[in-house]
Structure prediction request, 170 residues.
Amino acid sequence: MKRGINHILTLPTLLSALLILLCVSTLDARTRTTRKNLRSTEVPVAVIEQDDSLLPDSLEAIDPHAVTLKGYGKRASDSKESFFITNNTRHRMSAVRLLLRYTTMNGELLTQRAVTVPVSLKPGETKLVSVKSFDVQRQFYYYAGPQPRKQATPFQVAFRLTGYDIPVGN
Prediction:
């Protein structure tokens, strides 16, 4: 029994082919998952200067510019704060200790805390690190990051290097 081309192009087959073509043509209209208007990771974190009255006098011997922080990020929903840390010294360093100061956009102090970042950095090296967030209730977001959909308060952060370890040996 010979079947010709007319048998293949029946109405149900033709409708199925049109449905498949319609589905394929709508694939271009997919949902975009990337965020727009993100700010650069090159935004530097401000350094707390020594003449600040809230700093202990014991920090005078430590060069505040021995490390640089950039690309700080904390969304309102995050339980961690992330940033890039750069070693600006001629020595390898580890266990970097920082004083982080959080303020409102008006400059009012929210909190200030000391953190130790367990990281090994060669001279000139930059690494992405994370620390547990000060914001346990998740009500704040970093002002240079994406604005959240929920109600949250923007904040700024500044840091001061309070110490670091220089590892001995390999």
